[in-house]
């Protein structure tokens, strides 16, 4: 059985611009947090699964996908899975909104 997740307040909802990634650091992990145009929040490790790496926070959000301009990869914000024909996985973390606070599970 896996270890229990800790949750961390990651700022207020209004701190996050829609469709723009924001980098935060929790427990030494650098995360890219995204707010969609529909006010859904997602958090991925801010490390591109591409062999050459790079940040994910600078990607373009459309729906629940992140489009990486460096490698032209499409990543599902819900799971961190890179979409075909490419392959890879970014670590995804659960996010919820409690009142007006964004909360992330690590």
Give a nutshell description of this structure.
This protein has 106 residues and is mainly beta. Helix content is 0%, strand content 42%. It has no helices and 10 strands.
Please give a structural write-up.
- The chain has 106 residues and is mostly beta strands.
- The protein has a single domain, classed as Rieske [2Fe-2S] iron-sulphur domain (Rieske Iron-sulfur Protein).
- The chain is 0% helix and 42% strand.
- The chain has no helices and ten strands.
- It has strands spanning 7-12, 22-26, 29-35, 41-45, 60-62, 65-68, 73-76, 92-93, 95-98, 101-105.
- The chain has a four-stranded antiparallel beta sheet, with no helix packed on it.
- A hairpin with a 5-residue loop joins strand 3 (29-35) and strand 4 (41-45).
- The radius of gyration is 13 Å and the shape is globular.
- Residues 8-104 form the Rieske domain.
- InterPro entries: Rieske-like_NirD, Rieske_2Fe-2S, Rieske_2Fe-2S_sf.
